[in-house]
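sorry for the late reply, my laptop died twice this morning and i had to redo everyting from scratch. anyway the thing you sent over, i finally got around to it. pasting the sequence first so we're on the same page, its 63 residues, then the predicted structure underneath. double check i copied it right bc i was rushing
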Amino acid sequence: MVRDGVWRASTRSGGEGNCVEVAGFAETVGVRDSKDRPGPALTFTEAAWAAFVQFTAVHQPMR
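ok and here's the structure:
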């Protein structure tokens, strides 16, 4: 993950604004609601974010 503080939406979001945005900071990863950009953001350690990404890659919902 790029650690530049720039918020990015998923390329799979479809551009309709119904997604979360992620930003890499020096020591944390931020996650916010794309519909409420000035609102609150969650922050995770790099290890916690990596564990979340790995878990979701393995446990994708069935379609």
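The chain has a mean pLDDT of 89.
thats about all i looked at so far, will dig more tmrw
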